Amino acid sequence: MIDKQELNGFYIPEMTSVVCKSAAEMVRVMTAGARRRAAACTDMNEHSSRSHAVFLVTVEAAHKHTHVIRVGKLNLVDLAGSERQRKTNASADRLREASRINQALSSLGNVISALAENSPHVPYRDSKLTRILQDSLGGNSKTIMIANIGPAQYNYDETVTTLRYAHRAKAIKNKPVRNEDPADAKLREYQAEIERLRAMLAERRGAERRGAERRPRRATKKTQPEPESGQYLVPGGDRCWRSGEERSGAGRSAGRGGRPRRHSRSPRAVSI
User: Fold this and answer.
1) Could you tell me which residue ranges the Kinesin motor domain spans (predicted)?
2) Which of 18, 77, 197, 221 places its Cα 20 to 30 Å from the Cα of 141?
């Protein structure tokens, strides 16, 4: 069973992961895996590989200051060669192995053709090999394919098939991006959103401040001075203050009928 993973691309329950701290340790692990690979003798190859081999190298790097963890992986894949039964004279177990090898290679060829033609459906699930190589072929990766061909006339058909295989693979266009820990990526996304909102808020406040500066100021009304002790406001005419003594004198000067006379600013003659 092969499960899809967000970061590593795939997960196989029987797969073994070994932590290596140097390139020498990694080579020892790869050599140990190669010893477990099945091989047999056929009429075309004395040491014919009877299976495909995938060696996955995962590298994690943490930034010294930001502590952002980036993850990269390298798939080293050795595909078993396509075999024609009439040339290998395989039988029994060797024939069944060749049949499975050719079937996986055929599925890989269909995937490469679909990716090269930008087909909406890519048949990754047709074989375990294409499931494992899904991210390497059409995912977030850069892929290098090395095609092995033979110069002999006897291998003409196999050489043409291999070159067509490589030509279709060359047409695949991937756009890889940097991988990082999902938690760090989400944190960086939130930080960018906060900075964007802060910039919007600062721009809004600046616009309000500029609008307030352009707005004309309203004229303030002049306030009347407060009356001093013993003064009152004369009604009518010019607004001015008179002393309390003038008010008492005005109260004594009354006209006919006992009505008080209104003060006037024009001169008057008074006979005693």
Assistant:
1) 1-172
2) 18
